[in-house]
Design goal:
The structure holds two protein chains of two kinds. The longest helix of chain A is centred in the middle third of the chain and has 32 residues. In chain A, 38% of the residues are buried. Chain A is mainly alpha-helical. Chain A contains five helices and no strands. Chain B is mainly alpha-helical. Chain B has one domain. In chain B, helix 1 crosses helix 7. The radius of gyration of chain B is 21 Å and the shape is globular. The termini of chain B are far apart. Classes of the chains: A mainly alpha, B mainly alpha. At the A-B interface, helix 3, helix 4 and helix 5 of A face helix 1, helix 2, helix 3 and helix 8 of B.
Chain lengths: 166, 202
């Protein structure tokens, strides 16, 4: 089966690549925010090198980018998941790659939980920042960062099994 | 003297944390948007875990043949595997949104108690079920027994949740309200992760 101008395989590879690009951008945003939240630079100290400048950046800068990137990355991942279920998971099972299958199953759960926490995440990061939400802000950011990092690594392993460039 | 000062400092830190969580809850429940987003997040975690564990998808998608079936449909011969994840999401998101909307209509007192009831029920039900399954050797081969245990364990869970939510001091229920947003998804992920153990123990 072929589309008029590209093959079906190319179509799915383009979708997977777009999913990957958005995931990389999301990964960068959550990581930078996590650093700014967990190890903020002291107020009195002027930002010097690259790491210090990241630590000194206001963590609320990344909120809009994270929300805007998380939703389409999730939706695109949900679309590509159709191809994964038939084209990738079945050969994985046939070759006994059970750990890869299991970790990928957990990915669908953790990203779903992250998706549902996104409205609350946005709410606690609204300006002006409320002092009462300081602890919640920190832990919601940690949760989302863990979800995104886990999903990225597991998705990458699945891609290495059968995906773009394999 | 130093020890006394340290103890005093810790007590005031604890008091500060309590006051912070109480004021966070007050701020959340003061606005409809705040109530909605928190209750949505908490109820999604519970419902998604429940739907996944019971395998209650709104629909089943069969990707190999592009077919959609209402509710749960096992894969038929020659039609490839069935996908349930979309169905769990399609059911959990609107249900959580509905509960979130309902939370904007009730008083704060009811909201705190109802949240305690639902979260404690989810925890007690899971814990009692896990204890029953782990202590009975027959559960390793009798799936019907596991299913019936799932339903039976809901009864003490329900009673416990009713008692706790009735007797819990309102201040405590208010203080823990925002914490459920982290407790329930993490608890849900523990259950969901444990249920995948067959993949890791082969």
């Amino acid at each position: 089966m072929e589309f008029d101008f590209i093959s079906v395989t190319t179509f799915w590879r383009i979708l997977l690549f777009l999913h990957f690009v958005m995931a990389v951008a999301l990964l960068a945003a959550v990581t930078l925010q996590l650093v700014a939240v967990l190890v903020p630079a002291p107020v009195s100290q002027p930002a010097g090198n690259f790491v210090e400048r990241i630590r000194a950046a206001p963590p609320q800068w990344y909120v809009a980018a994270i929300v805007i990137l998380y939703v389409p990355t999730f939706l695109l991942g949900a679309w590509v998941y159709i191809k994964y279920r038939t084209y990738v998971r079945i050969p994985m099972e046939q070759t006994g790659q059970w750990w890869t299958v299991g970790t990928f199953e957990f990915k669908e759960h953790i990203v779903s939980m992250g998706m549902a926490m996104l409205p609350a995440y946005w709410y606690v990061w609204r300006k002006p920042l409320s002092e009462s939400f300081a602890s919640l802000r920190k832990w919601l950011t940690v949760f989302l960062a863990v979800a995104v990092w886990y999903s990225f690594l597991v998705g990458h392993v699945a891609n290495d099994f059968r995906g773009v460039g394999t | 003297m130093t020890q006394a000062l340290e103890v005093h400092e810790r007590i005031s830190e604890l008091g500060g944390a309590r006051a912070a969580s109480q004021s966070a809850t007050a701020e959340v429940t003061a606005s409809k948007a705040g109530r909605f987003v928190f209750v949505f997040g908490i109820s999604f975690a519970i419902l998604y875990t429940l739907f996944e564990q019971m395998n209650w998808p709104l629909f089943t998608y069969h990707p190999a043949v592009g077919k959609l079936d209402f509710w749960m449909q096992r894969a038929r011969s020659g039609e490839g595997p069935g996908m349930y994840w979309y169905g769990w999401l399609a059911l959990a998101f609107p249900c959580a949104a509905l509960i979130g909307w309902l939370s904007t209509l009730v008083s704060s007192k009811w909201l705190y108690r109802a949240t305690v009831f639902c979260c404690v029920l989810a925890i007690l039900w899971s814990v009692i079920f896990a204890i029953l399954v782990l202590t009975d050797g027959r559960t390793s081969f009798d799936t019907d027994l596991v299913k019936s245990m799932g339903w039976w364990s809901a009864i003490p869970g329900l009673v416990g949740a009713l008692v706790i939510s009735y007797f819990v001091p309102l201040q405590l229920a208010q203080r823990v309200f925002t914490s459920w947003l982290l407790i329930m998804p993490i608890g849900g992920l523990l259950i969901l992760g444990y249920s995948l153990k067959s993949f890791f123990l082969r």
